[in-house]
Write a structure and sequence with these properties.
Length: 527
Amino acid sequence: MPQPRIMFYHDGRHPLIYMYEPPMQKEEYEAAVNELVGTPVDALMFCLGDGRTVLHDTKVGELWGHNVENWPHIIFRRAHQNATHLIESGNDPLRVVCDRAHAKGMLIYPTLLVQQGRGPRDQDVRCSDFRFDNPHLEIGARGDLDAEFPGLTCLDFKHEEVREERFALIEETVTHYPIDGFELQLNYTPYYFHPDEVEAGREIMTAWVRRVYEAVKGSGANRELAIRIPASLEGCLQVGMDVCDWIQQGIVDVVIGQTFSGPELVDSTVDFRPLVEAAEGSSCRVHAAIQSHVDSDRLGEATIEMVRATACNYWAQGVDGLYLAHWFGNWPYKADFYEKLRELPHPEVMAPKDKHYYVPTETGRYPKPPTEPGIAMSLPAGLAVDRPTEVKFKISDDLPRWNQVGRIHEVLLRLRIMNTTELDSLRFRLNGVDLPDELLRKINEMYRMSAPRYRTGSGYWFIYRLDEAHWPECGDNTLEVTLLERDADVIPECYIRDVELEVKYLMGKHFHRGRDADLGPYEYSGI
């Protein structure tokens, strides 16, 4: 079996079973595959419903909504209606998507959301009776954890009954469906043990992963086990996942590192190098999860320039492939979606093309985006007088190389400082070198009456059109901001909210960039 380089996660719900009016037709369900035909996607990672309940004809698990009489959520009801109709008409949804994927030359890996919490029975209509009937199997069952602990109502994997319930669903899938691999999504709610029992839990989790791996291989020697985890190896250890041990024991074929899984944010700053180093010399491959959501005050989904920047940063770290997580949020897919997909497997194609590096920060939907264990956001970052604040970012562009052949158009460094006034004095350094005022343009946004998506409050943009002497380096870069003098009449704290870097290229030496403003007010003919 070929080893996929581009994996696409489809949650099986939002752009599919939620969208079509009951009774859903087999051909409509096949759209999950049809919409990706002709793209570089090698493998479809197809989610098995909610994880606690599923949307296919299971004999060992529970069908989504089987235990609900009155529905407080009509879209969840629609999913139940569509799944039930397909099953009763002889079109098991999971088999439909497996068969269609193979008919179009695509690999298929069912994905299990291994862990998540539980809500009240009258509200959590996606939940299983197993979960409702067994609260004593939850991490917070002892009653000694803070109510805000994110894994409070999650299953505690120290219990054999928990591990057996999860395994039965996996074993059924690999035994009865024509699949090419299986994915454990361990990063959905990545908490598996009581915080006091994590160390002992690592051995338990490793034994369970080994059992899953053996079931996958036992059902077909060429089948693969893929596991999605927090991108931080230390963070994984903190919640009971000894990923390095899994790799060394050879019980995982593909490890997928991910950040900002909850808010689904694009993140060009992720450091996958420890994960790549851990897999070096083993048979395990490392995939980097790349997302396309921005959710800034100016932009919802990432532009192709942002996707290029992020993908190239990941490829430059030596990953074996990309995992397109939550891209189904772009549905219905239009031309710009397919344009982004086209270049992804080819870093050398993207190298001399425009890129926009974006450091994750506060958003609209998630004002304080949650992060995985072991991961910390660098923005927003506070500013205090005479105390330098650093923001680190990576780029993959070899600017001297492309400048030598006349391909660099401009390099822009853009920062937004909140609660600053015209009387403040700030110093900006990039990799230890002061950025001179002659390269700077400031934009006053202390007050905005409107914004493309939502208003963010008061601030100034500081935009540097960097000359060659002040360009960032290929690889790691450090931006340092120091508040030298503060307006004495202002109370709110001054802080860095946004850091972005844009690299713009020419198609060739002395080439135009579409309409060229330097030619005057007339429309440029392109000749």
